[in-house]
Amino acid sequence: MTVTREELAAFADGELTGERAAQVAAAVAADPALAGEVEAHRALRARLADHYAPVAAAPVPDRLAALLARPQEAEVVDFAEAKERREARRGIPRWGWIVGPALAASLALVLLLPGSGGNDAAYADPQLAGVLDSRLVAEQAPGADTRVLLSFRAQGGEFCRVFSGEGGGGIACRDRQGWRLEALGEGSAGASTDYRMAGASDAALLARAQEMAQGPALDAEAEAAAQANDWRGASAR
Predict the structure, then answer these.
(1) Distance from C-alpha of 162 to C-alpha of 122, rounded to nearest angstrom
(2) What distance in Å separates the CA atoms of residue 11 and residue 110, rounded to the nearest whole number?
(3) Staple partner for 201: which of 19, 109, 141, 195, CB 3.0–4.6 Å?
(4) DSSP string spanning 157-203?
């Protein structure tokens, strides 16, 4: 039985129901590769949920609370139209569990850079490289100008990190020369706002990381071990 990536993501999210859910569950139980993909989805979702928990717990700014307090006209719901929208969304790749429905539009915000490691490759400047070398996801300050969202190992064996900040975000992978920039996108909202939010392109960067990774994102122990080894992956030795 063929199981699509969209169905695997929906199954991992608990959003696949009925007979098809049972069929996918049986396929996953019988195929270690499919089981590994489901585990990767769930592990990344859990790490992202922890990362964005402070945003969800932050108090609503006064100006937004004031908008919510205004009397609103009653809305007439067209259930048939709502059902059509819901059915249409089921045909979209299931990346919504990363940071929400803004992902489809945010994919256009990512600028992919040369990643061959040749003369045309771009590398992180010393300040960003210092952050990528030293900052662990679990130990960084919530208000840091540049935050590391997660770390993972790419298909080629090198370690890569997704970062986001007021000046921009991206994905950087460690090779012999330094932190090679694989993708860039707009950063999170600046610290001058009432609270920091995930930038729209953070979703695209995380989706790109999912495609690049050879397994789930590194947990705290694996990330600390990679740092202790100077992030030397297969191509950085």
Answers:
(1) 15
(2) 28
(3) 109
(4) S-EEEEEEETT-EEEEEE-SSSEEEEEEE--PPPTTSSS----HHHH
For residue 54, give the amino acid letter: P
Reported as a single tens digit per residue, the pLDDT across 2-34 is 888 788 788 888 888 888 888 888 888 888 888
In a domain, 236, yes or no: no
Helix (H, G, I), strand (E, B) or coil at 112: strand
**Range(s) of the domain holding residue 217:** 5-228
- Residue corresponding to tokens 């064996």: 157
List Cβ neighbours of 179 (8 Å cut-off, separation of 6 or more). 123, 124, 128, 129, 132, 133, 161, 172, 173
- pLDDT tens across 189-231, in order? 433 333 333 444 677 888 888 888 988 899 999 999 999 999 9
46 lies in some domain: yes
Is 196 inside any structural domain? Answer: yes
Is 155 a member of any domain?
yes
**Residue 119's CB: how many other CB atoms inside 10 A?**
6
Residue 222: in which H helix or E strand, if any?
Answer: helix 220-228
Q: Is residue 67 within 8 Å of 43, Cβ to Cβ?
A: no
Split into its structural domains, the chain has a count of 1
CB 151 within 8 A of CB 139: no
pTM of the model: 0.52
Side-chain half-sphere CA neighbours of 117 within 13 A:
11
Half-sphere CA count of 3, side-chain side, radius 13 A:
24
Please tell me the distance from the alpha carbon of residue 205 to that of residue 182, in angstroms, as a whole number.
10
